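User: Fold this; tokens only.

Assistant: Input:
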Amino acid sequence: MTLTKADLIQDIAAAIGLNKREAAEMVEAFFEEIAGALVGRQEVKLSGFGSFELREKRARPGRNPKTGETALISARRVVVFHPSNKLKLAVAPGNRSSGATGTATAPTGATRSSLREIEEFM
């Protein structure tokens, strides 16, 4: 399952006791701050979660796999995420609170207990 922005808004509203409009404003403001910092070429570090940074990619030759035709892939900037060690350990197999391992899917909505686990993680 995928956690969407709407799910995130709903979960935050339920966990903190905000209405959905306030939670939506908070989530939007959070994402805008991250995007604004990256546009301003700043690295974004979220303690206990990870960091986002911009990386410059040079132009390079490429190939269309369908036709085999060669083409030049233009230079561009990409956003790169580096998870923190805490996040890496939290998602590592065998470290889940449910005791499940492998590729089990998580429920879409966060519960209060899962939000507490995230708070403990942070």
